[in-house]
Amino acid sequence: MVPEVTRRKFLGAAGTVAAVGAGANAALAVEPSEASQRKPVKVIGICCSPRKGRSTATALEACLEAAREVAVETELIELAGMQIPGEPAAGVPLAPNQQDDFPKLVPKLSEPSVAGIIIGTPVYFGNMSFLCKAFLDRCNVFRRNFGLSNKVGGVVAVAGGRNGGQELTIRSVHTCLLGQEMIIVGDGQPGGHWGGTVWSGAPGGVTKDEYGMKTVKNLGRRVAQVAVKVHG
Length: 232
What we know:
The chain is of the alpha/beta class. The chain has a single domain (42-231), classed as Rossmann fold. 39% of the residues lie in helices and 15% in strands. The protein has 7 helices and 6 strands, in the order H-H-E-H-E-H-E-H-E-H-E-E-H. The chain has helices spanning 7-27, 32-37, 55-68, 106-110, 130-138, 166-178, 210-231; strands spanning 42-47, 73-78, 114-122, 152-159, 183-184, 196-199. Strands 1, 2, 3, 4, 5 and 6 form a 6-stranded parallel sheet that branches. Helix 5 links the parallel strand 3 and strand 4 (152-159). Helix 3 packs across helix 7. The protein is globular. The relative contact order is 0.17.
C-alpha cells in the first residue's frame, strides 16, 4: 500500500527544494572581493540584425548592461553593414574581390578573456535572420580545434508578435552553439526559460515590453554569472 503523503510532509519537502534552489542561486552570486581578485572576464553580444541600432541592438544593450552588474566587461558587435558570405562555410571560394568581413571577427571571439557570447537575432518566419545563419555557419572555423568550447552562450530573439517564434528561434540558435561545445544557459530565475524573448511590436517599442526586457536582463546576468564561475 502506498503511504499517504501528508500536508506537513509535502510542505517540508517543498521547503527543502526551495532551500536547495536558493543555495544554487547564491552559489552563482559574485562577491565584490571576488571581482577584484579574478582574471578579466568579457561577454560579447553579437547583433545579427541587418538594421543597425534598432530593436535587436536595443535588447542586446539591455542584456549586456545587466551582465555588467556582475562586474564583467562587455562589447556589442553589430553585423549590420558587414558582408558575411556563407559560401566559405561550404568550401566554396568567394568571387574575386568579394568582400568578407567575417575574418576580422575571429580574433575578437578567440580572445581568452571572452568567456560569454550572447547572440541576438530578429525572428524571420519563426527562425533566425539570414545574417545570423551566415555568421553561425562561418563559425565552423572554430570547430577545427573547438575554440569556442566552454564559453557560455545565450540567445535573445526579437519578433514582431508577442508569440512570434522567439522560442523556436532561440532553440535553433542553441543547436548551433551546442555544436561548438559551448555551455548554454537561459534567462535564469525566476523565469528559468530559454533566453530573452522580446516583442518589438509593444506600444512604445521593445523597452516597453516589460516581460521581454525582464527575460533579457535575467539572461545577461545569468551568462555573466556562469562565465565568471567557469572562467574567472
